[in-house]
Amino acid sequence: MTISQVGSAERDLWPSLRVHTQARIGLGRAGSGLPTHHRLELQAAHAAARDAVHSPFEPDVVAQALRGEPTVRVRSAAPDRLTYLQRPDLGRRLAPADRAHLPVGEWDVVFVVADGLSSRAVHEHGAAMVRATTALLPTAWHVAPVVLAEQARVALGDDVASAMGATMVVVFVGERPGMSAADSLGAYLTYRPKPGVTTDADRNCLSNIRPPLGLTYEVAAGKLAGLMGRARELGVTGVGLKDDSEAPMLGNQPKLG
Q1: Which neighbouring-strand residues pair with 111?
Q2: CA distance from start to end of the chain
């Protein structure tokens, strides 16, 4: 095979590989750089990622999509978006004034829908995941009103659950945008969280929830509800709790906030 034939074979291979991934592979080159259309695609993806991080969270969008389910709105201790991005610690704590608005009860679980680093992901997938997951829980479970949290990171759920008296918390949060996905939702499950004590090793994560290119709502909710049931039986989440469902896991690695 000649050198020109090898080059041709490689060019023919890339399109078939790109069908299976959103990664930018085999883009070719124009001189010493990328072809113009690929460079423009990269710039557009970068702009989408920046927009996802900086776009404001709209709780009304999620509340309306929840179709009348009771909700409570809270903010973290970060007063604005810039502070939130610069001070991750403040995004992990409730604003003191909002703590009093949380209903206290003997809740088995509280769902927290948090903007995280992509409000777009939460607007598009948050309500659907709450509905899909609660539909799979036993009717005997006491589910708290859904908490809509602004300027929030994953660990804010610890503070929320502690204030409400919930046994476990599920935080649906917008994940850090990448150059191929700006709308990825993560789900983080924690059993008996303790603010300031619970670590990432105490959580279970489902990542890349964004049909049709990531986990579907049905698959993600099935895995999450199964983990919740096992957590209740064993009294543990995190490294001590494994996903033993048969549904395929298509998500990326966790992106904790």
Answers
A1: 170
A2: 51
Give the whole-angstrom CA distance, residue 51 versus residue 129.
Answer: 23
Residue linked to tokens 């994940």? 175
List strands edge to edge, sheet with 168-174.
Answer: 71-75, 146-150, 109-114, 168-174, 185-191, 203-209
What are 49's two structure tokens? Answer: 């990622």
CB atoms within 10 A of CB 60: 11
pLDDT band at 3 (very low <50, low <70, confident <90, very high): very low
pLDDT digits (tens, 9 = 90+) for 71-112: 999 999 999 999 999 999 999 999 999 998 899 999 999 999
DSSP lists the bridge partners of residue 203 as 190
Question: pTM surpassing 0.85?
Answer: no
The answer to whether 251 touches 209, Cβ cutoff 8 Å, is: yes
pLDDT at 129 over 90: yes
Residue 255: closest CA among 207, 195, 183, 189: 207
